[in-house]
Amino acid sequence: MSFDLPRNVILPVDAVDVRLDPGLHPFERDNARAIAENWQREIAANPALFDGTVVLLSALSYRDNRLVGRCHAVRYSTFMLWRGNRQVAGAEHAYAHAVLVAGDNALVAIRMAAHTVNAGSVYFAAGSFEPIDFRDGLVDVDFNMIREVREETGLDLSGATRGRRCYAMSTESGTVIFRRYRETAPADKIARRISAFVASETEPEIEAPVIIRNATDLPDGLMGHMKPLIEWHFAGGQ
Predict the structure, then answer these.
(1) Which of 18, 51, 136, 214 has most Cβ atoms within 10 angstroms of its Cβ?
(2) Per-residue model confidence as pLDDT tens digits over 33-67
(3) Are strands 10-13 and 161-162 parallel, antiparallel or unpaired?
(4) C-alpha to C-alpha distance for 163 and 180, rounded to whole angstroms
(5) DSSP character for 120?
(6) pTM of the shown model
Protein backbone atom coordinates (compact mmCIF):
# COMPACT_ATOMS: atom_id res chain seq x y z
CA MET A 1 0.00 0.00 0.00
CA SER A 2 2.74 2.48 0.97
CA PHE A 3 1.59 6.07 0.17
CA ASP A 4 -0.94 6.37 -2.60
CA LEU A 5 -3.11 9.48 -2.48
CA PRO A 6 -3.45 12.72 -4.44
CA ARG A 7 -1.33 15.63 -3.22
CA ASN A 8 -2.26 19.28 -2.72
CA VAL A 9 -5.99 18.82 -3.23
CA ILE A 10 -8.83 18.75 -0.69
CA LEU A 11 -10.49 15.33 -0.66
CA PRO A 12 -13.84 14.30 0.87
CA VAL A 13 -13.42 11.58 3.49
CA ASP A 14 -16.32 9.41 4.64
CA ALA A 15 -14.22 6.94 6.63
CA VAL A 16 -10.76 6.86 8.18
CA ASP A 17 -9.43 3.33 8.53
CA VAL A 18 -5.95 3.95 9.93
CA ARG A 19 -4.78 1.21 12.26
CA LEU A 20 -2.06 1.07 14.89
CA ASP A 21 0.48 -1.64 14.16
CA PRO A 22 2.09 -2.97 17.37
CA GLY A 23 5.43 -3.48 15.65
CA LEU A 24 8.32 -1.03 15.49
CA HIS A 25 8.25 1.50 12.70
CA PRO A 26 11.08 0.64 10.30
CA PHE A 27 12.35 4.22 10.48
CA GLU A 28 12.75 4.00 14.26
CA ARG A 29 14.22 0.50 14.09
CA ASP A 30 16.83 1.43 11.49
CA ASN A 31 17.91 4.85 12.80
CA ALA A 32 18.42 4.39 16.55
CA ARG A 33 21.84 6.08 16.67
CA ALA A 34 20.85 9.03 14.49
CA ILE A 35 17.67 9.50 16.54
CA ALA A 36 19.62 9.63 19.81
CA GLU A 37 22.23 12.03 18.43
CA ASN A 38 19.64 14.36 16.93
CA TRP A 39 17.62 14.36 20.14
CA GLN A 40 20.62 15.64 22.09
CA ARG A 41 20.84 18.56 19.66
CA GLU A 42 17.10 19.20 19.89
CA ILE A 43 16.97 19.36 23.69
CA ALA A 44 20.11 21.47 23.81
CA ALA A 45 18.30 24.00 21.63
CA ASN A 46 14.97 23.63 23.46
CA PRO A 47 15.12 21.99 26.91
CA ALA A 48 11.31 22.14 27.15
CA LEU A 49 10.94 19.27 24.67
CA PHE A 50 9.63 15.96 26.05
CA ASP A 51 10.33 12.56 24.52
CA GLY A 52 6.77 11.25 24.68
CA THR A 53 4.94 8.96 22.28
CA VAL A 54 3.30 9.89 18.97
CA VAL A 55 2.47 7.85 15.88
CA LEU A 56 4.11 7.82 12.46
CA LEU A 57 2.56 6.39 9.30
CA SER A 58 4.13 3.57 7.31
CA ALA A 59 1.29 3.48 4.75
CA LEU A 60 -1.68 5.61 3.65
CA SER A 61 -3.95 5.47 0.62
CA TYR A 62 -7.17 7.09 -0.60
CA ARG A 63 -9.88 5.09 -2.36
CA ASP A 64 -13.64 5.64 -2.68
CA ASN A 65 -13.65 8.52 -0.17
CA ARG A 66 -11.78 6.41 2.38
CA LEU A 67 -8.37 6.88 3.98
CA VAL A 68 -6.78 3.53 4.72
CA GLY A 69 -3.44 3.27 6.44
CA ARG A 70 -1.06 1.84 8.99
CA CYS A 71 0.90 3.61 11.70
CA HIS A 72 3.21 2.80 14.59
CA ALA A 73 3.85 4.31 18.00
CA VAL A 74 7.25 6.04 18.01
CA ARG A 75 9.17 8.22 20.42
CA TYR A 76 8.91 11.95 19.87
CA SER A 77 12.67 11.94 19.31
CA THR A 78 12.07 9.63 16.35
CA PHE A 79 9.48 12.02 14.97
CA MET A 80 11.88 14.94 15.34
CA LEU A 81 14.56 13.22 13.27
CA TRP A 82 11.99 12.37 10.59
CA ARG A 83 10.68 15.96 10.72
CA GLY A 84 14.10 17.22 9.65
CA ASN A 85 14.18 14.87 6.64
CA ARG A 86 10.59 14.37 5.46
CA GLN A 87 11.60 12.79 2.16
CA VAL A 88 12.46 9.51 3.87
CA ALA A 89 10.72 6.65 2.06
CA GLY A 90 8.22 4.64 4.06
CA ALA A 91 7.37 7.25 6.69
CA GLU A 92 4.85 10.12 6.72
CA HIS A 93 2.90 12.13 9.26
CA ALA A 94 -0.85 12.66 9.62
CA TYR A 95 -2.63 14.98 12.03
CA ALA A 96 -6.14 16.31 12.53
CA HIS A 97 -7.72 19.78 12.68
CA ALA A 98 -11.01 20.76 14.23
CA VAL A 99 -11.77 23.75 12.01
CA LEU A 100 -13.40 25.98 14.62
CA VAL A 101 -16.14 28.10 13.04
CA ALA A 102 -17.68 30.83 15.18
CA GLY A 103 -21.29 31.95 15.04
CA ASP A 104 -20.29 34.87 12.80
CA ASN A 105 -18.55 32.45 10.37
CA ALA A 106 -15.08 33.62 11.37
CA LEU A 107 -12.43 30.97 12.01
CA VAL A 108 -10.64 30.72 15.36
CA ALA A 109 -7.08 29.43 15.16
CA ILE A 110 -4.18 29.64 17.63
CA ARG A 111 -0.59 30.90 17.73
CA MET A 112 1.83 28.45 19.34
CA ALA A 113 3.84 29.44 22.41
CA ALA A 114 7.53 30.30 22.28
CA HIS A 115 8.70 27.13 24.05
CA THR A 116 7.06 24.77 21.53
CA VAL A 117 8.53 23.21 18.38
CA ASN A 118 6.26 25.34 16.19
CA ALA A 119 6.82 28.57 18.13
CA GLY A 120 4.87 31.49 16.67
CA SER A 121 3.11 29.38 14.05
CA VAL A 122 -0.60 29.82 13.42
CA TYR A 123 -2.91 26.89 12.74
CA PHE A 124 -6.04 25.27 14.16
CA ALA A 125 -5.41 23.76 17.60
CA ALA A 126 -3.98 20.30 16.95
CA GLY A 127 -1.40 17.73 17.84
CA SER A 128 -0.02 14.47 16.53
CA PHE A 129 -2.06 11.32 16.97
CA GLU A 130 -1.10 9.38 20.08
CA PRO A 131 -1.93 5.81 21.16
CA ILE A 132 -4.73 7.21 23.36
CA ASP A 133 -6.54 8.27 20.16
CA PHE A 134 -7.07 4.67 19.02
CA ARG A 135 -10.03 2.40 19.81
CA ASP A 136 -9.37 -1.32 19.33
CA GLY A 137 -6.46 -0.38 17.11
CA LEU A 138 -8.46 2.03 14.91
CA VAL A 139 -7.88 5.79 15.02
CA ASP A 140 -10.71 7.96 16.38
CA VAL A 141 -10.09 11.22 14.54
CA ASP A 142 -12.80 13.22 16.31
CA PHE A 143 -11.56 12.11 19.73
CA ASN A 144 -8.13 13.47 18.81
CA MET A 145 -9.59 16.76 17.56
CA ILE A 146 -11.67 17.34 20.68
CA ARG A 147 -8.82 16.28 23.00
CA GLU A 148 -6.26 18.57 21.42
CA VAL A 149 -8.58 21.58 21.34
CA ARG A 150 -9.42 21.07 25.02
CA GLU A 151 -5.76 20.70 26.02
CA GLU A 152 -4.59 23.78 24.12
CA THR A 153 -7.55 26.18 24.45
CA GLY A 154 -9.74 24.92 27.28
CA LEU A 155 -12.72 24.70 24.91
CA ASP A 156 -14.92 21.61 24.95
CA LEU A 157 -16.16 20.92 21.42
CA SER A 158 -18.04 17.75 22.31
CA GLY A 159 -21.31 19.71 22.14
CA ALA A 160 -20.45 21.70 19.02
CA THR A 161 -22.15 20.99 15.69
CA ARG A 162 -19.89 18.81 13.56
CA GLY A 163 -19.66 18.95 9.80
CA ARG A 164 -21.25 15.91 8.21
CA ARG A 165 -17.95 14.54 6.94
CA CYS A 166 -14.20 14.92 7.24
CA TYR A 167 -11.85 16.10 4.53
CA ALA A 168 -8.15 15.58 3.94
CA MET A 169 -5.31 17.33 2.19
CA SER A 170 -1.98 15.62 1.67
CA THR A 171 1.25 17.49 0.95
CA GLU A 172 4.92 16.56 1.03
CA SER A 173 5.02 17.69 4.67
CA GLY A 174 2.12 15.51 5.83
CA THR A 175 -1.60 14.78 5.62
CA VAL A 176 -4.13 16.88 7.51
CA ILE A 177 -7.57 15.42 8.24
CA PHE A 178 -10.10 18.09 9.13
CA ARG A 179 -13.75 18.73 9.94
CA ARG A 180 -15.71 21.87 10.73
CA TYR A 181 -16.89 22.29 14.32
CA ARG A 182 -19.42 25.11 14.63
CA GLU A 183 -19.98 27.14 17.81
CA THR A 184 -22.87 29.57 18.23
CA ALA A 185 -20.81 32.26 20.01
CA PRO A 186 -19.13 34.99 17.93
CA ALA A 187 -15.39 34.78 17.36
CA ASP A 188 -14.53 37.60 19.80
CA LYS A 189 -16.30 35.79 22.65
CA ILE A 190 -14.61 32.48 21.86
CA ALA A 191 -11.23 34.25 21.71
CA ARG A 192 -11.81 35.78 25.15
CA ARG A 193 -12.55 32.34 26.60
CA ILE A 194 -9.34 30.98 25.11
CA SER A 195 -7.30 33.94 26.36
CA ALA A 196 -8.67 33.43 29.88
CA PHE A 197 -7.66 29.78 29.75
CA VAL A 198 -4.16 30.64 28.53
CA ALA A 199 -3.76 33.16 31.37
CA SER A 200 -4.70 30.47 33.90
CA GLU A 201 -2.10 27.96 32.70
CA THR A 202 1.39 27.72 34.21
CA GLU A 203 2.98 26.77 30.89
CA PRO A 204 0.38 27.13 28.14
CA GLU A 205 0.97 25.43 24.81
CA ILE A 206 -0.36 28.41 22.90
CA GLU A 207 0.39 32.12 22.97
CA ALA A 208 -3.04 33.41 21.98
CA PRO A 209 -6.11 32.82 19.81
CA VAL A 210 -6.11 34.15 16.26
CA ILE A 211 -9.34 35.19 14.52
CA ILE A 212 -9.50 34.84 10.74
CA ARG A 213 -12.44 36.66 9.18
CA ASN A 214 -11.73 36.20 5.47
CA ALA A 215 -9.37 34.49 3.06
CA THR A 216 -7.44 37.62 2.06
CA ASP A 217 -6.37 39.15 5.40
CA LEU A 218 -4.24 36.34 6.78
CA PRO A 219 -2.09 36.44 9.94
CA ASP A 220 1.69 36.37 10.08
CA GLY A 221 3.12 32.97 10.91
CA LEU A 222 0.37 31.03 9.13
CA MET A 223 1.46 27.44 8.46
CA GLY A 224 1.65 26.57 4.77
CA HIS A 225 -1.16 24.03 4.79
CA MET A 226 -3.61 26.48 6.35
CA LYS A 227 -4.22 28.81 3.39
CA PRO A 228 -6.05 26.21 1.25
CA LEU A 229 -8.23 25.23 4.23
CA ILE A 230 -9.15 28.85 4.91
CA GLU A 231 -9.94 29.49 1.26
CA TRP A 232 -12.05 26.32 1.16
CA HIS A 233 -14.06 27.43 4.17
CA PHE A 234 -14.82 30.95 2.96
CA ALA A 235 -15.65 29.64 -0.51
CA GLY A 236 -18.36 27.54 1.13
CA GLY A 237 -16.59 24.21 0.70
CA GLN A 238 -18.82 21.21 1.32
Answers:
(1) 18
(2) 999 999 999 999 999 999 999 999 999 999 999 99
(3) unpaired
(4) 5
(5) T
(6) 0.95
